[in-house]
């Protein structure tokens, strides 16, 4: 089987932005969440101020207080908003049934590309810091992490069931290994380790995934991301 290659749309360059076609109330909240996410990435939790979120969103501080009761709530809701949308988009892709394509896309969009994908990792780092100081936030941290975890596990299970994957261990074990490597390599890349450029991370993730899932490296499609922000689709 030859290598398949295609360029797919994905949110990799634009800043956090609000979606279209929402109700006015939902639209305003999404707009505030996008603004809050940008401020958090820029200034961190320690530097987060309500007035900065208001200024970024172009609204009064009263509007921000109406939607969010505290800085912790802003962090929580911003991360929840940032995590859910890409997970939902990937779930749609996984259900298309092209498991090799879905795996290649998952690995590519897990990389901290400059823009939204990088910023999502920064939000996670901020949230982990908050959780380390407030254990009451741990259940939510687990809930959000489980969204990605469950999608990876389901992809491995689905691909194994139809014979596209031949995992070297139990599917859930392989899924946990993949997630652990994604976290370990990508967060080091985000922090800026000189020996962890994104190209090196990509190579290691793809090689490891092929080894763990019994896939020939030549069979795993090459996915290149553009900047439109639409749902990636299989070329088939």
UniProtKB/TrEMBL annotation:
The HTH tetR-type domain sits at 26-86
Alphabetized InterPro entries for the sequence: BetI_C, Homeodomain-like_sf, HTH-type_TetR-like_transc_reg, HTH_TetR, Tet_transcr_reg_TetR-rel_C_sf
Q: Which UniProt keywords apply?
A: DNA-binding, Repressor, Transcription, Transcription regulation
Q: Cite the Pfam families for this sequence.
A: TetR_C_6, TetR_N
GO MF: DNA-binding transcription factor activity; transcription cis-regulatory region binding
**Is Transcription one of the keywords UniProt gives this record?**
yes
Gene3D superfamilies tied to this protein: Tetracycline Repressor, domain 2
This chain belongs to which protein, by name? Unannotated protein
């Amino acid at each position: 089987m030859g290598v398949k290659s295609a360029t797919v749309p994905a949110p990799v360059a634009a800043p956090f932005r609000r979606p279209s076609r929402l109700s006015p109330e939902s639209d305003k909240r999404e707009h505030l969440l996008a603004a809050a996410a940008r401020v958090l990435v820029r200034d961190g939790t320690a530097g987060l101020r309500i007035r900065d979120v208001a200024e970024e969103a172009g609204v009064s501080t009263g509007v921000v207080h109406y939607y969010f009761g505290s800085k912790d709530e802003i962090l929580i809701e911003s991360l929840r908003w940032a995590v859910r949308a890409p997970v939902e988009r990937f779930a749609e892709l996984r259900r298309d049934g092209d498991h090799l394509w879905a795996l290649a896309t998952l690995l590519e969009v897990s990389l901290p590309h400059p823009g939204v994908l990088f910023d999502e990792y920064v939000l996670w780092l901020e949230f982990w810091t908050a959780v380390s100081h407030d254990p009451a936030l741990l259940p939510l941290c687990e809930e959000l992490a489980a969204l990605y975890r469950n999608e990876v596990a389901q992809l491995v299970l689905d691909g194994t069931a139809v014979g596209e994957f031949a995992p070297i261990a139990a599917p859930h074990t392989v899924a946990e290994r993949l997630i652990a490597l994604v976290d370990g390599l990508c967060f080091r890349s985000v922090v800026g380790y000189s020996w962890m450029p994104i190209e090196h991370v990509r190579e290691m993730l793809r090689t490891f995934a092929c080894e763990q899932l019994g896939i020939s490296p030549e069979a795993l499609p090459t996915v290149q991301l553009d900047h439109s922000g639409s749902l990636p689709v299989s070329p088939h």
